[in-house]
Each structure stands twice: as structure tokens, then as C-alpha cells.
Amino acid sequence: MKAYQRKLDIRNGCVDLSHGSGGRAMSQLISGLFHEAFGNEWLACGNDQSAFDVGAGRMVMTTDGYVVSPLFFPGGNIGSLAVHGTVNDIAMAGARPLYLSASFIIEEGFRFSDLKMIADSMGEAARAAGVYIITGDTKVVERGKADGLFISTAGVGVVPAGLDLSAGNARVGDRVLISGTLGDHGVAIMSKRQNLAFETEIVSDSASLHDFVASMLAAGGKGIRLMRDPTRGGLAATLNEIAQQSGLGFRLQEAAIPVKPGVAAACELLGLDPLYVANEGKLAAIVAPEVAAAVLAAMRVHPLGRDAAEIGEAVADDHHFVQMATSFGGGRIVDWLSGEQLPRIC
Amino acid sequence: MKYADEFRDKEIALGLAKAIRSEADPEQSYRFMEFCGGHTHAISRYGLEDMLPKNVRMIHGPGCPVCVLPAGRIDMAIRLAERPDVILCVYGDLMRVPGSQGASLLKAKARGADVRMVYSTIDAIRVAEEIPGRAVVFFAIGFETTTPPTAVMIRLAEKKQLKNFSVFCNHVLTPPAMQNILESPDIRNIGRVEIDGFVGPAHVSTIIGTEPYEFIAEEFGKPVVIAGFEPLDMMQAILMLVRQVNEHRHEVENQYSRAATRDGNLRAKEEVSDIFELRDQFEWRGLGLVPYSGLKLKRAYAKYDAEVRFDMNELRVADNPACECGAILRGVKKPVDCKLFGTVCTPETPMGSCMVSSEGACAAHWTYGRFRDHQQRRAS
In whole angstroms, what is the distance from residue A159 CA to residue A126 CA? Predict the structure, then answer.
């Protein structure tokens, strides 16, 4: 006997309140769309939770919510972004990501075809990263109660023995490395905003970084103090956080910071500073001076680190300022962002 | 970046810095006010102060039309936006500007007021066309540069016969404010004005020309250089001011000859004078009431004037008495001399005009320059 009388009409159908009510329609949506996209042995069991073996050593856990607008942007969509973002939060501890959860809050009327595209790109991003989405949840809310689709995730991973990357680890004299050009994600999103649309070739840098991190760790070992992915608030927020948490300051060289000409031009037009614009596939690493050259070399041979650069160093500073020598020859502070640059970029 | 990098060349900048250093008389002090927030931003963003000798000091002026908008006008806009029949369209940087008692449009929006961020005047027209059942009000602000787009918008609304569209007009004029800085009765309290010359806003002069500043040069004996907003524009303008002071000249010079002329844009000026007229006075945050410094819609366009249409009452809110904006704007005090600076008044919780937008004198010093205070303290 067929489980469902009628196939899900992916091409023309859309989500209605019955898809969140716990009945047959919801079950069909989950098995027909999400299981298909994520396909793994844990989901196939159909339990409310998934069991997995725990190895020896330390684990990391993270959680994240995705409310990006628009849902589809050059270089990805909310689905791939959710996987990359969660994987990267785990990877910044030097950990190997293993399992993710994904919870979907869907506004009624959301098209199946869009949902499938998003779920498929989540599945694809997970497979590429070697992680499994092993548990999830679906809720449907009335029209106007959510902006299309929100995704919330959790992720777990294992940390290699002896590794302890943490925000308070930076020391005076350490070098600041970044893995590539700044601001690509934020500018790609803004280029598709209603009322703001402009032509650009910039695509989001959204990518999973754990493999890249592993190659950095192989080169730098314990000389790598900590890593962060500069998402919302950009590099400026990341370095200010680290400065506070490690109790020191930073001095940056503006001329060394890589920014694509298209991103620089868009920022010029919109009155933004690339240092404050979001990234989704970049990291900043604070490393001991003696390993900086080796780590930088390892970054540059990896496809995700071709434009990697050393951009400054940690200095003693009771005020925890992030200072920058401008390309023009003067000096300035790179402060926290106050207020919003533009809403909802991740 | 083509057409921009040429104006940010480090080598040329160093050459200009060297010329300023060698021409500025070490026995004399040079205090120049850059009137416009765009200039303040360029100074801070590129760290220009580090390139000037100690006796050449920049005084940050009233900043931008956002900073100078008084709390009362924000309160008026909030009251308007709270009406259920109104959609208020605003530029994003207005959202956080404080009204009285910590109110802002951002908070009003969170409580349910229909406040929409737009990126251009055309967007507001579009909202009015899409939602004919509600009254759409555009919160118009800006110096002379942004007045012509508002005029064009009113013409467009007329052409499209939009009945649900009006403008809350807060356009202000720069020359009267400059005059106020030099001669208002408030100066009696501060004692003096320590300004030896002005860097004038180039974008304003592309519209009104350089001529409206000539009375500042003639009657007040202050040199004025109309300058662009790129760092090299600023450096060149400062050098031109140093030379005027050295040669005891006080003239209006045009550094921005690539776009500004003495007469400005005649067509734009015509449009503006067709639709707008002078208010007797307008309140500026930090300066108080400034005579003939604001514009309103002419009676013939009253149906597009939100103040008439919604019978809006003028609200006045006194600035915090401890706020030193008035003295800071006249070069007598620096941001750090204000008791509120960095304590209760920060970019997150701005009190005075100078902290409100990132282009204000205090906000720029807080965001980009406060490390210098600590350097100086350590040195002394």
C-alpha cells in the first residue's frame, strides 16, 4: 500500500498549516522533501532523536539561527549558509564537525519548489563537508508571522587531543592572519535587496572551513592561538572581541587587508566600510610570530586561502583598542559597529 | 577603484602634508572648521590629523543634517508615525536619532508605528502608489544638496496625482548656520569663537554655487575654501587656507572646481525656489534657533506639506544643559572637555548633536580618534 495517496506537488504546491500540524501532510513533507535531500541512516530510522557513538576526548557544540533576507543570493541560499555557518563555528575550535540538527520555521504559502531547492543545497553542503544532518523539526506559522523561512541549527564536533583554541589566548606580539578578501558575503546579499539592487559580479564566500583549518593546524600546531570567522559585524567586531577577551590591543595595516575591487566599489557607493561587512567563508587567526610564515604559506596553497594575508599584530594596550595605520599614512581606531549597517545578512 | 583612488594617493598626500608643515608659521595657530560631516569623516577615516603639524587644528562643524535635527522635530515625526493611517518613510540614519526621553523612530517602529526605511525619494513615491489607502509621508532632511530631489519628488507626486503623499520638510541651509557660529548671542556665554577659516561643503556648492559664502569672507574676515570630500581634497584645502591666513587674505576659493561653480546649478535652484520658501527660524541641535536657516513648502504646495495636512504642532525640547555642543562647534572646547562625552553620551546612546551621527564631531572622535587622547596623556 502506498503511504500517501498523492505525491507532493513540488513544482506548483506550497506549504500550508497542515504541514506543521503533526498529521499525514507533515509526515509526507518530512519524508518526501527533507529525508530525500539529507538522506542518511539516522534520519531513515524516523526517531524523534538520533543516537551516535561518542569517542574519547573533547567535543564541541554550537547553535545558530538563520534569518537571512533575501533567502537566495549570489553564491548560495539560506540552506547552504546554515550548514556552512554551523560547520564553521565548530571548525573555529579546530574541531572536526560530525553531526548537525536543523529546525525549520516556515511561513504558510512558502513554495515547495523553493523549500526543495534550499533543502537540496543543505544536503549538498553537508555531504561536501562530510557532516550529517541527523535530526530536525518542522513548524509552520501563519502568513505574516515569519519572513518565508527561518532555519535554526545545532552542531557537534570533536577536538583533536591537546588542542585548545580559545578567545583569551592571544598574546602581545602575535600576528593577525586573514584567509582572504573581506566583505564578499555582505555585498552579495545587499546587491539583491529590494530597493537597493545593483549589478555586481560579487558572490557570497559562504563555504565550510574545517578542512582549511585542519591544514592550518598541521602547519602551525600549538602556535595557532585562536581562530574566528568574522560574520556579522565583520573583521572589526571579531578583533574588538578578541582584544577584550585577551586583554590586549591590535595594530593593523590597512594596505595589507585584501578587499575585492567590486566590494570596495559597492562599499564606496553605499557608504560602508568593508571591515564591518559580513563574511561567511573567511577566518581570522591569531598566531605566534614564529609560526606566522609557515601558517600563511599553508593557507595560500589551499583553495579557500589563496588571498590570505598577514594584516597586523597584537600589542599591549590597556584600552583594548584596535588601531589601524591607514593606506593614506594616518592612524585611526577600528571600533565596534554601533547600530546596524543593514539588517539580516545571515 | 577608478575615479576614487586618484584622490587618495599617499605620495601626493605626503607632498601636501610637507607643504603645509613648511608653510604654516610655527609661531601662529591655525584653527579651521570643516563645516560638513563628510569632511569630518574623511579626516577621521584617513587619519589626516596625524599628517598635520600641531599648530594646524581642525574643528569639526555642525556635521550633517541628521545630527542637527533637534529632538522636537524627531518627537513630531514619532507622533505622526504613531497615527494608524500614516506610513512614514525615512532614510536609515534617521532611525536612531534621539527624540526626547530616549525616544527614537526605531523604538516607535518596534512598538508598532509603520516606519519604513527607504534608500531614495523615489522609493517613498512607490510606497504611496502601492498603498493608496494610507497616507505616506516622506521625512525630508538635508542641506541644499538634497533639497532638489525633494522638489523633484513633489513635482512627480503632482504629475501622478498622488493624493496620499506628503513631505515632512526639514531641509536646512548652510550659510546661515555658518553665520550663526560666528555671531550668535550664545557666544557671550562661551566668550569667543576660535575659528580662522572654513572648509566649505563642495556638494552643497554644486547646487547653490560658491557665491553664498562670500559674505562670510567679506563681513567676518574669514577665509573659506570650498572643498571636495576625498582626503586629497581636504589636504589641498587646508594648504589653501594656510596660505590665505599667511597672506592676510579672506576670500572664497574653490578647490572643487571639477564640479562646483560660483553660480551653482541654476535649474536646481529654480526648482527649489518654486516649491520652497524660507522659515523665519529653524532649530538646530547644538546651535539653537537659527534665523532664516530652514525651508518649508510654499502655500501653493500645502497639500504636500505634512505639517499642514496633519496639523502638526511644533515641539521644542531643551538640549541637555551639560551638553557642550555649542562650544565644541565654535572651536572653544574639544569633545573630551564635555562631561557627557564617553560617559552618558556615546554613539550607542547619543545626547548632543555632535554624537548623533557618525559624522558628528564627538562621534568621529570617539569612533576613530580617541586613542590619541591616551597617547597624549602618556606623553605628558
Answer: 19
